[in-house]
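Hey, can you fold this one?
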Amino acid sequence: MKIMNPVLTGFHGDPSMIRVDDTYYIASSTFEWFPGVRVHESKDLVHWKLTTTILDTVELLDMEGNPCSGGIWAPDLSYADGKYWLVYTDVKVVEGAFKDMYNYLTVADDIRGPWCVPIKLNGVGFDPSLFHDDGKKYIIQQTWDHREYNNPFNGLTLTEYDANNKCMKPETAKTIYEGTSIKTVEGPHLYKINGYYYIFAAQGGTIWTHQEVVARSKSLMGPYETEPDGPFITNFDTPDHYLQKQGHGSLVETPSGEWYYASLCARPLHHPTENYYDPRGWCTLGRETSIQKVYWDEEGWPRIEGGHGGLKEVEAPKDAVLTEAAETNAVYDDFSSDKLDGEWNTLRVPFTEKMGAVGEGKLELIGRGSLSNRFTPSFIARRWKDFVFSAVTKVKFEAYSYQAMAGLVNYYNNEHWSWIFITKDDDNHNVIEVAQCDNGKYTSVLKENAVKIPERTEWVWFKSIVDHLDYYYEYSFDGENWNRIPVKLDAMILTDDYVVEHYGGFFTGAFVGLAAVDYSGYESKATFDFFEYRV
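Sure. Predicted structure:
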């Protein structure tokens, strides 16, 4: 049996992987998307299925108004004392000298919850992880320095956590590792293996220079020696590799003593006219998750089998237990359940009656703020998970004016998105328009050529067709005969690699979903009959 990378396709970055008995779990970052922290499980490291989303209440996670790519950064999942422990960061400031953030801990007896009221830890830096060592507990974390004369990534700080009193002990804080000359050391995890304490930490930023470095010491407090002939994993010098950006991740041991490492990764696409190496590519699916096999050299250092660039195909564990999981990402949702399924996400806040309702074969969305709004959009979405797919929906909507809109959206963040939608023109006709927002600049595609919807038409079908870096919109009035909007859109605009050119938060991936907008404040309702993701 082979592990085929990536194992989690589409926006699943910063994987924190653990094993409990014969089951592996991966927790991944969710940033401004709600609910926070997705957890997948597997018994073979090959087939993975979504188990739960941990931060599913406002009590556990309140992100209203958070910046794009703020919110949940690099959650850390661990298991000790018969309990599951989750440490997570809620980032409130993304750009500029400061990274205001709050770090929390929540605990549960079962991975599916319930999880306890979050315990506030500190705001020293992001990417904290919890290390359990001989009855004591410690937080190791990236440390943020706002001062312009220092590097903002000011090493890794270790601080004892008092589990009895549920508080940090700041007087114990010590910088135990400063990384290498690559700088930007972050995402640390601590392990105690064969008498050594090992730090696994990311460096080089979450771009093409990304990497993971390893350091070790006989003492928890150091000093730590960096792995020679490193880094542990990177694709900086393997530009032709299928996988890129590998680095930030975590280590796990199988029951029979094999070792594996889960890492974020990305798969770039290129325009036909582009140099393959510069630009290095456009990763429409965002940062995904790969798993590589690890061996230990004669000196006790961990190494990636096949070299530090990793492999597309990796041997599964010898003791793997076959896991049943869906064979494709295809899905048809007829909205018959009164709860949205786990693949649907909302921005910053949960789906409530303020946003709409679902069940009895329909989704109703109440028109609220625009897709540029960080507070009140009525918008549900799910990840792009394939380079080639189509998304289809059927919508009923009566707009009061051009200020009300409802339709099918492709989205990266509130400054980078597009959609096909129903609205009103100046002659009070219901029409179909397509629009794109590129770095905050809004452009209507059809304008005076907006498609007039025939009178007495109750439902309109919309389709988005994605073909690598090209994507299109189509519409139909009967669900069988389709008309393509004669405009090819560039999916490059929905990538980390494009957004980083304009903005400091570039950590998510493309989504497709359904939205209703009515910034007039009259809250016109849109009804969606189904949603289908086809591959």
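The first helix runs from residue 496 to 499. Let me know if you want another pass with a different chain boundary.
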